[in-house]
Amino acid sequence: MFLTRLIYASTKTEHFNPTSLEEIIEKAASNNEKNDITGMLCFNRNYFLQSIEGSRTNVNKTYNKILNDKRHTQIILLDYSEINTREFSSWSMGYVPTSKLSAQINLKFSGTSEFSPYKISGASAYMMMLELKKSLPSV
Question: Total structural domains in the chain?
């Protein structure tokens, strides 16, 4: 079994409502735990940036479900890599909201302090998520 990490960006749609984020996090945490998937989700009211880790088969199945979720669109694969170890192993689905802290980290890994996952490379997205992880509790 190969461990794989997938990172993608997307934009919310009109199907995304005020309770959608909570529903996404709860369902992802439950499903991910059953499928040995770990990861992190960043969201700023418009854009998503997510990393998912696990077996190649389970990551691909999870990503296929993500692609068919009508609550977001313009899904762009930023990175897909075989990995030796998980970086988010204690997170069935960590969530990072936009904050003053994330603005500083955005600036460090992109050309602006504004969260815009379409304007960063897969490698920068990964490094940014690792930096954010350092400042948050495990879930």
Answer: 1
